[in-house]
């Protein structure tokens, strides 16, 4: 049997998700490093954990695992619509934000369609583009690693089908000012779907940032993606959602499989949406952690990007693989950004204060002994 004659033509461009050290669960990190204590600061997880209200709701939902869930998550849809000031037919649930990105690609992309992606951004956009055999077109970043909207406009052609924007952006933590984004959207042709990934929306602090949900009401070709993995700390539950024009949502629903979000995740999400105290505490812990490491970077003279997320991108001035390995030897695992061409930069997720203090101590030790 020759597999090459059986798989789709896009197969050579597809790569399985292979976990490196930074991608492992904490217990597996401990085994890989041979350490009893490891601080995982590589996956942008909320260190507070889920809302107690969400945990209680999910535990109750466990008693009905014999029953299929709502096929479209109607109760969650309705609550999101109410919270975001849209109609239920503007909202669609997914198995995490990753699935929503894939569903968008499956709905709108044909082979040879062009997809514009900022060169330093979330990798799932590229993977989903390859999945459909479409052509990725990378747009350059600004010198400060902000998203260059003018460069994106220059790359639009009749073949352009989709533009992916991450706002706030992963892995830089930067935002696109709302006024600039509105002006950009007004210039994007109607045949191009602009997908705006707001996974880190709730962490944004820049006064020039605003959610793009308001633009959904103005531009039919804008689709916003959110997740419950970050501020709501339901990463393992796998639930996300999209907000767009009713016609766009309906098109995606033609592709979305029924029951794609399990009942446990739906219960947790619904309860999380009503726990503002948990959201506020998540933001507080995040701010404390950011201040700790920003103070360190300023002390060490390292350039860092102002963060609107639950991580900080820093230029260490030293080889990023060297810094990653040195931190790992000290039991602190972060994200090496050399794969983005940022060969001296790291992305550090914000953890609990004691985790950030461990990072600070490890960094100081590396610098002192280097």
From TrEMBL:
UniProt xrefs under Gene3D superfamilies: Aspartate Aminotransferase, domain 1 (3.90.1150.10), Type I PLP-dependent aspartate aminotransferase-like (Major domain) (3.40.640.10)
Cofactors named for this entry: pyridoxal 5'-phosphate
A GO MF term: histidinol-phosphate transaminase activity
Sites of N6-(pyridoxal phosphate)lysine modification: 230
EC number: 2.6.1.9
Any one Gene Ontology BP term: L-histidine biosynthetic process
Transferase recorded as keyword: yes
The entry's keywords: Amino-acid biosynthesis, Aminotransferase, Histidine biosynthesis, Pyridoxal phosphate, Transferase
Pfam families: Aminotran_1_2
Pathway: Amino-acid biosynthesis; L-histidine biosynthesis; L-histidine from 5-phospho-alpha-D-ribose 1-diphosphate: step 7/9
Domain Aminotransferase class I/classII large: 38-362
Catalysed transformations (reactions): L-histidinol phosphate + 2-oxoglutarate = 3-(imidazol-4-yl)-2-oxopropyl phosphate + L-glutamate
Entry-linked InterPro entries: Aminotransferase_I/II_large (IPR004839), HisP_aminotrans (IPR005861), HistidinolP_aminotransfase (IPR050106), PyrdxlP-dep_Trfase (IPR015424), PyrdxlP-dep_Trfase_major (IPR015421), PyrdxlP-dep_Trfase_small (IPR015422)
Family of the protein in this entry: Belongs to the class-II pyridoxal-phosphate-dependent aminotransferase family. Histidinol-phosphate aminotransferase subfamily.
Subunit-level organization: Homodimer.
Protein name stated in the entry: Histidinol-phosphate aminotransferase
Organism, as annotated: Brevibacillus invocatus
């Amino acid at each position: 049997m020759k597999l090459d004659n059986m798989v789709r033509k896009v197969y050579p461009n597809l790569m399985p998700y292979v976990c490196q050290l930074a991608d492992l669960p904490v217990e597996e990190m401990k085994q890989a490093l041979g350490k009893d204590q490891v601080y995982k600061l590589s996956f942008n997880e909320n260190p507070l954990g889920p809302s107690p209200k969400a945990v209680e709701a999910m535990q109750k939902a466990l008693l009905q695992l014999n029953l299929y869930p709502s096929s479209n998550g109607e109760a969650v849809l309705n609550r999101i619509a109410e919270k975001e000031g849209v109609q239920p037919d503007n909202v669609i649930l997914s198995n995490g934000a990753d699935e929503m990105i894939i569903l968008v690609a499956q709905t709108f992309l044909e082979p040879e369609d062009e997809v514009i992606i900022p060169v330093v951004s979330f990798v799932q956009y590229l993977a989903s583009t390859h999945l459909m055999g479409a052509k990725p077109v990378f747009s350059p970043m600004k010198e400060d690693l902000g998203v260059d909207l003018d460069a994106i406009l220059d790359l639009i052609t009749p073949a352009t089908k989709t533009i992916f924007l991450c706002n706030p952006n992963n892995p830089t933590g930067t935002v696109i000012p709302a006024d600039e984004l509105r002006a950009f959207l007004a210039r994007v042709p109607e045949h191009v779907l602009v997908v705006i990934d707001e996974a880190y929306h709730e962490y944004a602090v820049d006064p020039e940032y605003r959610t793009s949900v308001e633009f959904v009401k103005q531009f039919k070709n804008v689709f916003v993606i959110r997740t419950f993995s970050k501020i709501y700390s339901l990463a393992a539950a796998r639930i996300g959602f999209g907000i767009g024009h009713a016609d766009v949502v309906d098109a995606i629903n033609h592709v979305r499989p029924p029951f794609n979000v399990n009942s446990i995740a739906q219960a947790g999400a619904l309860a999380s949406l009503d726990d503002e105290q948990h959201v506020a505490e998540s933001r507080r812990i995040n701010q404390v952690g950011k201040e700790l490491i920003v103070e360190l970077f300023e002390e060490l003279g390292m350039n860092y990007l102002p963060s609107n997320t639950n991580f900080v991108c820093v230029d260490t001035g030293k080889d990023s693989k060297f810094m990653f390995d040195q931190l790992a030897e000290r039991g602190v695992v972060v994200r090496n950004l050399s794969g983005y061409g940022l060969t001296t930069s790291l992305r550090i997720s914000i953890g609990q204060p004691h985790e950030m203090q461990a990072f600070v101590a490890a960094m100081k030790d590396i610098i002192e002994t280097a």
